[in-house]
Every structure is written in structure tokens, then in C-alpha cells.
Amino acid sequence: MASQLVHLPEVERLSPTCIRILGGNPGKFALQGTNTYLLGTGPSRLLIDTGEGKPSWIAAVKRTLQEEKASIAGAIITHWHHDHQGGIGHLVEAYPDTKIYKNQPEPGQLDIVDGQEFRVEGASLTAWHTPGHTVDHMVLVLNEEDAMFTGDNVLGHGTAVFEDLRTYLDSLESMKRLFRGRAYPGHGPVLPDGPAKIAEYIQHRRRREDQVVQNLRSEKADGSREAGWTTMELVRVIYEDVPESLHPAAAGGLVQILQKLHKEGKVSLDDGDKWRLADRSAL
């Protein structure tokens, strides 16, 4: 995975109003590291996300703000995961007057509601609740660019994980209609056509769902069918081109698909982990 990732500078100006500062936490799931974004053109700026609390991140924030002759007015957290809010302590220590905004806030934080607006010189943001990756997940539309900060619902490389597939797909459909420009993801490089990438995400999930249904309809390698398929049997077929070491992670996403189909009455679950089509003739 790491060898496939493009290099991203620790600090990079992405547009006249947007600077990306990496969280200093590269890894298997964080890719090049958590993207945090400094927004605005005047002496007072907004920050999106805070990384996981690495000293290199707050040092880069301080250095960038000094160069910009600016300070932080508020930090907007896209969701509760540690690699997006872990740097709040360092931020508040360095800039005690910073207001921290988060959906489902923790003590000392301020709430974010659907449609809420944030403004500084050169940047106006509209926040939208888009659960799926997490229940509190927010995205932000940068009105000056008709662009979106997608948090972890859409990444700059690969696909995202989610808590509930049906909710996640609903949020992707909503996100696609909210903007027309590029996407600034929570991890990875900028996506030049955000709505097109979201459409790819939706199509990818639909293809995976179709694969699950087709396999449940077919016989297994041993010729059996009625006994049903275990999750790992499905994983080994659907993800046959993926290293076996990654199969447990793939199983998590596959279970989400199966649970969605189960809620829709399309599959049944027997004996704890035996999946089969509920009505073979209807699919």
C-alpha cells in the first residue's frame, strides 16, 4: 500500500484559501497521514481536524500561522476518531482562545448542526451531517470553491470503512448533490472531481453487493449450495485477488453488505454464520 501512495508535503498550499498540514501519522489506514486544513486569507483562520496529536503536527501549525501572520479562530472536527481529534489538546494549549466545534460535542466543545455556517475572511463553510463512517460525521462545503471537505466518508486513495452501509450510501448520495468541484479528503491527495469520485464509491458498493448476491445464488466449490455460505467462504471467493492477510479486514465490509441485505429481507442467516438467499426466485 505505502509504495502506491504519492508523496504529499508536510505543508502545502492547495488554493488561495486552503493550506493542508499533514498530521505526522502515516500508516496502513491513515495513508500519508491525517489531512488537516487551514482556511482563510486574513489574520483569523479556521482549522479542519487536528490529527492524532503528534508534536510535529502542532509545530507545523505554529510555523505556518507565523508565516501567514494569522491565528486560529476555531477548529471544526469532522468526526470522533482519534486521528482527527487527538491534537485538540496541543491546539488549545498553543491557542487557548480556539473554539472547538464537533457534532455530538464533548465537554468544553461546541455543537455543529446541519446547515451551520462558519466564516472567516476568504472562506465560508457550510456543515452537513453525513453519518456512515461514524454516527457524528460531518462534511463541509467551501462555498468559494464549490468544494467539499469529505472527512473519512471519501478518501484520496482507496475506499472508506463505515459503521452502517445503508446509512453510508444515503450520505454519499446526499454529498454528491451538495457541490460540483473538488474534494478535500480526510486522508490522501485532493480529488479533482469530487462528485465523480463519490459516484465511483457508490458504484463500487453496488458491485460488491451484486457479487455477494451472485455468489449466494451459485454453488460452492464442493458443489453444495443449500448449506449456505459462511462470511469467510464469501471473502475467499470475492476477494481472491487480495492477499489473505487482508481477508479479515475485508470480512468486516462484507458483513455490512450481508446485514444490509438481511434488513431488506433478501438474505437469511442460520446457525450464526450461514448466509443464503431468502427467496432465490426474487433475485
UniProtKB/TrEMBL annotation:
Cited CDD domains: LACTB2-like_MBL-fold (cd07722)
Database matches in InterPro entries: LACTB2-like_MBL-fold (IPR047921), LACTB2_WH (IPR041516), Metallo-B-lactamas (IPR001279), RibonucZ/Hydroxyglut_hydro (IPR036866), Sec-metab_biosynth-thioest (IPR050662), WH-like_DNA-bd_sf (IPR036388)
Superkingdom, natural source: Eukaryota
GO biological process: secondary metabolite biosynthetic process
GO molecular function, one term: hydrolase activity
Pfam families: Lactamase_B, WHD_BLACT
Keywords assigned: Hydrolase, Metal-binding, Zinc
Cofactor (UniProt): Zn(2+)
Residue span, Metallo-beta-lactamase domain: 33-187
Homology family: Belongs to the metallo-beta-lactamase superfamily. Glyoxalase II family.
Name the record gives this protein: Metallo-beta-lactamase domain protein
Source species of the chain: Bombardia bombarda
